[in-house]
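[recover] target loaded
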């Protein structure tokens, strides 16, 4: 199915477009891993501390590894929340640099297409909200963010979540809340995800797209008749002078 940037969309302002980030818009490693690596390189958190943290919680980690790692952010305890802004400043905007932040080209084009149609675009991600907001800035403030919030006291992270981790059905709750707030139809809306945990989010909209899907999501997409897209090429969204959204192109 071909979507043209110039094609008309019925009731376009009554639609939303929801994008997962890690693995959908950005290739591995995850945003949180990139951020943790930045903190480690600056000696803000120590590898030995992380090793001890994991050792002390080995039982929980073995029983429910994904749930545990999503919920426990104590490695960030007592760190200044301004580190997120420091990390943003450290990111290279030269697309040839090793520390540049590169997006899947087709993902940028899809966001551009949705914005050109007047759709409301949101990042719906389990990643840390301060990091997701950094990514949203690459799109000139045109993209909203719903992600995992961290508890803050005295401008420092406590290592606890402020609310729930935004994954699975939590993404559905966030999307439904946005649809009610902005008065758009989920039956007419789009969602993009790469992992089986994005399945509930894809299932709640009328246009579901599995991007570079995991094995389990690919099976689910085939069963539900969802679109499957392979995104490969990478590019930056900014030049050296200013944030610049790549013009929308015709894309599949």
């Amino acid at each position: 199915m071909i979507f043209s940037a110039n094609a008309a969309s019925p009731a376009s302002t009554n639609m939303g477009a929801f994008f997962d980030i890690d693995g959908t818009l950005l290739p591995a490693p995850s945003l949180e891993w990139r951020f943790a690596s930045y903190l480690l390189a600056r000696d803000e958190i120590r590898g030995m501390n992380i090793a001890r943290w994991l050792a002390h919680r080995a039982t929980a980690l073995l029983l429910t590894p994904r749930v545990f790692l999503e919920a426990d952010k104590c490695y960030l305890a007592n760190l200044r929340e301004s580190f997120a802004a420091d990390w943003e400043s450290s990111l290279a905007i030269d697309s040839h640099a090793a520390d540049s932040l590169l997006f899947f080209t087709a993902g940028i084009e899809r966001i551009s297409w949705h914005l050109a149609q007047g759709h409301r675009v949101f990042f719906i991600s389990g990643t840390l909200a301060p990091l997701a907001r950094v990514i949203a800035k690459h799109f000139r403030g045109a993209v909203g963010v719903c992600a995992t919030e961290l508890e803050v006291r005295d401008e420092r992270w406590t290592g606890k979540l402020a609310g729930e981790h935004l994954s699975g059905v939590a993404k559905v709750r966030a999307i439904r809340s946005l649809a009610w707030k902005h008065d758009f139809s989920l039956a007419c809306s789009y969602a993009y995800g790469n992992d089986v945990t994005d399945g509930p989010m894809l299932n709640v909209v009328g246009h579901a797209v599995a991007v570079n899907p995991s094995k389990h999501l690919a099976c689910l997409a085939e069963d539900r008749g969802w679109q499957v897209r392979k995104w490969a090429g990478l590019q930056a969204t900014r030049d050296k002078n200013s944030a610049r959204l790549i013009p929308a192109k015709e894309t599949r």
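[recover] notes: Residues 169-182 form the longest helix (14 residues).
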